[in-house]
Structure formats: C-alpha cells, structure tokens
Amino acid sequence: MFSSALLSSTLTGDVPEGFVVRPLNIGDYDKGFLSLLSQLTRVGDVTRENFVTRFRTMADTRPTSYYVVVIEETSTHQLVGSATLVLEWKFIHAAGARARIEDVVIRHDMRGRKLGALLNRVLVSLAKLFGVYKISLECKDSLIPFYELNGFKKDEGNNFLVQRFDKDITISPTNDTLETAPEVEQSKI
Q: Which residue ranges does the record assign to the N-acetyltransferase domain (predicted)?
C-alpha cells in the first residue's frame, strides 16, 4: 500500500519481540485482516476480488492518502492489529494537509499489551513526517482516556456531527458510476 521504508525503526520505536509493524499488503486478505476489522465494526461480505480492488484504489491515490499499518505476529503470520492514517489534502493552511486516524483495532486476545499505543505512536509519527497541520480521530467515550494518554485532547468548542447511511448510494471504484438504491416509499420518509 505504501513503502515499508517509511516504517523505519526510528519511526516505529520499540516493537515487542514476536511482532512486526508494516504496511497492509494484498496477501493480508489471507492473514485475518477482515476478521480483525470485524472486531471493530461490521465488515460485510468482502470477497477477495472486492478486497484487491479496494486495496488498489487506496494504494493508487496520488499523492498517497491512505496508510494502513498492521501488526503481524511472526509466529503465526496472522494480523493482530491495524490502524489507518488518512491524509486529507487542503487549500487552507498554505495548501497543507490534515490527518485522521481511522479503524484502530487490536485482536481481542492481544489487548492489554500496549499494541494500540504502538499503532497510535506510529501513525502520529507518520503524520508529523508528512508535515500535517493537525491530526484527529473519532472514538467511543470509553476510549477517550486511552487517547488522552497518547497525546490527544478534546477540541473544546468544536463538535463532531455525523449522518449515517445504509447502503443507499454506491460509487463503483472501477467506473465511477453512481448506483442508487431502490426508491423508498414517501410514507417511510
């Protein structure tokens, strides 16, 4: 997805023995990546073809916008952690970039080993390397203390608002066509 040279030992710091921190790769479909994500949220039915298409779409952004970092357990060759750094290119802040941390997950049986802090440290270091003007994340209230321990703070006066959609509209990454869901009866609106 991106060059592993970015994840130098200087950037990653101390990685616990038996684990490696690296970029997501296409072969991770077979190393439990989707199963790992399902411990965070609903993944849905993602075939190998879907995975490869999405991977290539994300990897081919120019300039690169997606940095999915994983932790692999070397003895089992299975993924035990993952987090994504998304760069958003702006006109503001002297045509700068901001970063968001997304989809942070550690496999249930690996929690409590400071692997989440490791992923957080790696993504923040990458963001600093890229010179972003800010980095943000969204999390459940119960995780705020964890992220505060890792340098984040509530941005008082700013609010996070959301609109959630079921699979009403889909844009196909292969041909940029817009597909809409069947019409909803007016009585259901």
A: 19-176
Tell whether omega for the bond before 63 is within 30 degrees of 0, i.e. cis: yes
Total domain count for the chain? 1
What are the tens digits of pLDDT across the range 63-77? 999 999 999 999 999
Which CATH number does the domain housing residue 24 bear?
Answer: 3.40.630.30
CB 100 within 8 A of CB 85: yes
| pTM of the full structure | 0.83
Residues 32, 62: Cα–Cα separation, whole Å: 28
Residue 167 domain-assigned (yes or no): no
Question: Taking a C-beta distance cutoff of 8 angstroms, is the pair 138, 101 a contact?
Answer: no
Sign of the Cα torsion 52, 43, 69, 66 reads positive
